[in-house]
Every structure is written in C-alpha cells, then in structure tokens.
Specification:
Blueprint: H1 3-22, E1 25-31, E2 36-39, E3 42-46, E4 49-53, E5 57-65, E6 68-77, E7 82-88, E8 93-101, E9 106-109, E10 112-113, E11 120-125, E12 127-134, E13 141-147, E14 152-158, E15 164-172, E16 177-180, E17 191-194, E18 196-203, E19 210-216, E20 219-226, E21 231-239, E22 244-251, E23 254-259, E24 265-267, E25 269-276, E26 283-289, E27 294-299, E28 310-311, E29 324-327, E30 330-334, E31 347-351, E32 355-358, H2 364-374, H3 380-383, H4 396-410, E33 414-416, H5 419-427, H6 452-457, E34 494-500, E35 524-527, E36 544-546, E37 553-554, E38 557-559
Parallel strand pairs: 1-7, 8-14, 15-20, 21-27, 34-37
Antiparallel strand pairs: 1-4, 2-3, 2-5, 5-6, 8-11, 9-10, 9-12, 12-13, 15-17, 16-18, 18-19, 21-24, 22-23, 22-25, 25-26, 28-29, 29-32, 30-31, 32-38, 33-38, 34-35, 35-36
C-alpha cells in the first residue's frame, strides 16, 4: 500500500471513531424484564435494551408492561452521553366486573371470600387471579383471568345446578352433637346438601356414640338415631347391712328407680342414691358416674325420736310455728285392691325414719302471720274466716310458699306430705276404711263432713246420716284424734299433698317418696275429705286432684327430724 492510501485510511478511521464516541446511547433494564421501551412515541425495543443510539436533544422515555403501571421520564441527551436506567415497575390497577347466572353468587379471589354477591365490581392490582363463584345448590365455577393496568375486565360465569337433597336426623335424646366428619359443614336439621354420601358421627356425654355413612338422595332424607346410654358398674357399701339402697336416674325422659344389687350397672351421667334403714337417718347423694363407674360408702346414723312427743319451733320473727307431733317409722299397706282403680294396686310402703306432722290443720291466723311477714295478698274469703278456723281458699303454690317460709324462719325443713306419708298418718296402724273402723256413721265424731246439718242447708245434697251440729268448720281439734294424736284428718278441709296430678300406684316406689311423673303439673293431689264431702271421700285411701284453690281445701305440713 502506498503512503497516500495509508494517509486516507488513517484520516477515515479517526473521523469514524470520533463519531462513534460522540454518539449518545441508552441502556434500559426493568423488573420484570420484557417491558416495551418507547422514545418520543416510537417503540424501540424491549428490556433489557443495550446501547440504543439516541439523537441529542430532549426525548420522552416510556417503559411499559401490560400488568404494571408505565414508567415515564424526559431525557436531556448530549453528545457522548451514556444513559442507563434500572427501572422497577409498580403494579397497576384494573377494574373487574363480576357477573354470574344466576345472580347473587358469592365470589372468591385466589381463595379469599369477598363481601357481597354478584353482580359486583372490584378494583384489583394488575396481575393473574383465580376467580371462583358459587351459591347454594349450584356447582361452583372457576376461571383464571389476567388483570391489566387501566383495563376494564368482565368475568361472567354460568353456575350449573348441583343436585341437592335435605338431611334430617331425628335424634334421641335431645342435646346431642352431630358432626359431618371431614366436610367442614355444621349440621342443621333439614339442611340442604349436594347428593352424595357423608360420614356422620352422633355423640353425647353419657351415651354410646354412633358413626355411620349416610347417602343423601334427591328430596327429603330422614334417619332416626337413638343413642343408647353408656353403662358403668356401681359399687355401694352401707351400714347397717339391712339398709336399702335405691338408684334413681333419668332415661329418655322417664325417671327410673331400681333397688341396688351388687352387680348393678347404671347409666353414665347423673345418678341419685337414696339409702334408708329402719330407725336411721336416711341419706341422699347425687353424683355423676363416669365410664369407669363409681364406689360409695354410707353409714346411716341412728335417728332418735320419741313417737307421740310434740314441739313447736320458734320463729325468727317471734312466736312459734305449728304444733307438731312425732310419727314413728314403720310400714303399712297403701291403697285398696277392692277400691277404685286409682287406689290399686295395694302395696307395702316402708317409711324408714320418723317424722313430725302438724297436729292440727294450719289455721287462718298462722297464714295471716305469714302473709303479714312476706307481703303476700290473701284471698278475701280466707281473710274473712275466723282466726282459729282451718285455712282454706289457699292454692297449692301458696301452701308450698308457706312451708318454705317456715323453713327460713325455723331452720327445719317443712313441706307438704306425700300421699304415702299422709295415708300412713291417717291409718294410724289400721287396715280399715277409717282409722277407727269401717262404719261411716261414726265419722261425725272425727271430723266435720257433709252430714245432716249440711242437708238442712243444702236440701239436694247426698249426705252421711250423722250429725255434728256444724255446717262449716270454725275451729280445729274439736273432734276426736286418731291413735297417733293427730286431729281433723277426716273432714274440716281436705289437705294438699306433694304429688303432681294422680300418678298410678303401679309407678310408685315403696319408700314413701313423691312419685315422679314429669316436670309440668296442671293439677295436684289432695286427701282427707272436707265439710262438704261424702263418707267415701273422707276415707284413708280416697284420692282426688285439683288445679285451684277452694273453700274446702287447706294445709297440713310435715317437719323433717
């Protein structure tokens, strides 16, 4: 090559290299990559962009990605400049309108339940989402959507019918727990469920659980479930050895009383034990028996009381309570196999410990004292009676309240007699219709009943052909007492007893306790006949019930020793 050519090439290289070094260039990277780079409104490439040649002067730079907010900047470009930009794009925002057929479907975005129902519009950050819609008895549908910055997107899903049926478990006992195992669903009686098979567990403390699979079909699906009580051994030792132990528990709404035997098993749960022996103080314990069973020991203390002795407890407000007579423990035949069905079957009842009973029926004055102390409003007819007359026109509930008031005043438990206790006192050791025998014409010696005096006042009445000269009772203790020293058990006024209604003797126990027939009572029993009764109604065995107060019903109380 000659010297002239070398000079030309050298000059050209110098000029080209100077031009290259003086040309401005642009480098752009972004997070995320793949963003579009636009200069003065002209697309020039995607990130990463390296060494893009620029013209000098002022240029508008835009970096954009479908899912992100665009980046914008104005560049002042000079000769020889090397402009570098590292850009982190921020998420954009798009509007999403959510529709379903049928309407009012719930919506989940990436598994998170949204408030409200379709149709709805949400503003979401740009990006990819899984949209799920569903509603009762419709099959849920899902769709993956891409939300772009600044875009308006509509998502409309068809929700096909899901085959459903209802589920109702008729369960005994009440208060059980029902689990649809592994479904996350809470059982509700009559709930709707997709057609299919479900694992179900039914349980309650004290009962044997049941687990089963149940297939829900179209329509109504009903299954009865009865849980059996879980039983456990019960071990009882009692002194003296002659003590009788009764086990009381409830099952399927009924109360059961069973005599204890060494191998007895009882339902797990609440159990009551009643232990008694002649001449000993009875004991009652309540416990919750667990699945391992229970062991208990009893030692009954002697109960010393002199039959026929009398007392009157002092009242905290001053004065004394009713005059009481101590009644000995003993057994007797209750009822009458030859009498009406209400008095059958006759059975032996053991009252294992002595108790006290009011010597006379509770007087008008005693009820007045109670009313004055408590603010109770008395029946006008009761308030008008003579102070020493037996109280009448007093309801069962008022009789119970008076007994509770006496207990608060004296510290001794007072209550109405059970039917067994009343008949035991009335019989006073007899086995005849009346404590003195069977002759109804002698009743006028023992109480004020419907007699010839009543016949003169009420000519249409059937009466007993004896005459005591009194129409209505104006006092107490005016007739002969029975062998236990108790007055006016026949006639004057009948006396409320503790029983609810008139329970069958076939259901009654042999310990004299009140017969348990349920929790709701519309009426209560009363015994003993009154001033307007026939002789039959005044016998030791006759039973009657009422739901209201009357001028021929009053009160006699038992005091526990």
């Amino acid at each position: 090559m000659n010297k002239r050519l070398l000079v030309i090439v050298g000059v050209a290289s110098l000029l080209f290299g100077g031009w290259y070094l003086a040309t401005p260039r642009l480098d752009v990277t972004s997070e995320p990559a793949g963003a579009d780079v636009v200069l003065n409104g002209r697309w020039v490439g995607r990130t990463p962009l390296q060494g893009h040649i620029l013209e000098s002067g002022r240029l508008g730079l835009q970096v954009g990605h479908a899912q992100f907010a665009p980046y914008q900047e104005t560049l002042d470009v000079e000769l020889g400049a090397r402009i570098q930009r590292k850009i982190k794009l921020e998420p954009g925002v798009g509007q999403v309108r959510l529709l379903s057929n049928p309407r009012e479907a719930w919506v989940e975005i990436d598994g998170e339940r949204q408030s409200g129902l379709t149709p709805m519009t949400l503003e979401l950050a740009s990006g990819q989402y899984q949209v799920t819609m569903g509603r009762d008895e419709r099959r849920a549908q899902r769709k993956t959507v891409l939300v772009k910055d600044g875009a308006d997107l509509t998502v409309n899903l068809e929700l096909p019918l899901e085959p459903y049926g209802s589920l109702r478990l008729d369960i005994k006992p009440a208060g059980t727990r029902v689990e649809l195992v592994g479904t996350g669903l809470d059982y509700r009686r009559g709930m709707r469920l997709p057609i299919g098979e479900y694992p179900i567990r039914v349980s309650k403390a004290g009962y044997q659980s049941q687990s089963f699979r149940f297939r829900v079909r179209y329509g109504e699906n009903i299954r009865p479930v009865t849980l059996l009580r879980d039983y456990a051994p019960l071990r009882v030792r009692a002194e003296p050895d002659s003590a009788l132990v009764d086990v009381v528990y409830s099952e399927q709404g009924s109360t059961h009383v069973k005599r204890y035997t060494p191998n007895i098993k009882v339902p797990v749960g609440a159990v009551e034990l009643r232990v008694r022996a002649m001449g000993r103080r009875s004991e009652v314990r309540r416990l919750n028996v667990g699945s391992a069973g229970a062991s208990l020991n009893f030692r009954l203390e002697p109960l010393l009381a002199t039959a026929g002795s009398e007392f009157a407890d002092a009242l905290a407000r001053g004065g004394n309570g009713p005059r009481m007579v101590v009644i000995p423990a003993g057994s007797f035949t209750m009822g009458d196999d030859a009498g009406p069905i209400s008095e059958r079957p006759a059975r032996t009842v053991l009252l294992s410990q002595p108790f006290a009973v009011s010597k006379y029926e509770i007087s008008v004055q005693q009820i007045r004292d109670y009313a004055q102390a408590t603010g109770v409003q008395l029946n006008e007819q009761l308030a008008a009676l003579a102070p020493q007359a037996p109280a009448s026109n007093i309801s069962y509930e008022q009789a119970q309240d008076y007994a509770r008031w006496l207990e608060e005043q004296t510290g001794r438990r007072y209550r109405l007699l059970t039917e067994s206790e009343w008949e035991y006192v009335a019989r006073a050791g007899s086995t005849t219709a009346y404590a003195y025998g069977n002759d109804p014409n002698k009743l006028c010696e023992y109480g004020n009943i419907g007699d010839l005096t009543a016949k003169r006042a009420y000519r249409t009445w059937d009466v007993t052909p004896c005459d005591d000269g009194r129409l209505r009772p104006d006092g107490r203790g005016q007739y002969r007492p029975n062998a236990l020293g108790v007055y006016d058990l026949y006639g004057n006024v009948a006396e409320w007893v503790a029983e609810c209604g008139m329970p069958s003797y076939a259901e009654a126990g042999d310990d004299g306790s009140v017969v348990m027939t349920g929790t709701e009572c519309s009426s209560h029993g009363y015994r003993g006949g009154s001033w307007d009764s026939l002789a039959m109604e005044a016998s030791s065995t006759y039973r009657n019930v009422s739901a209201r107060a009357s001028d021929d019903r009053g009160i006699r109380l038992l005091g526990e020793l």
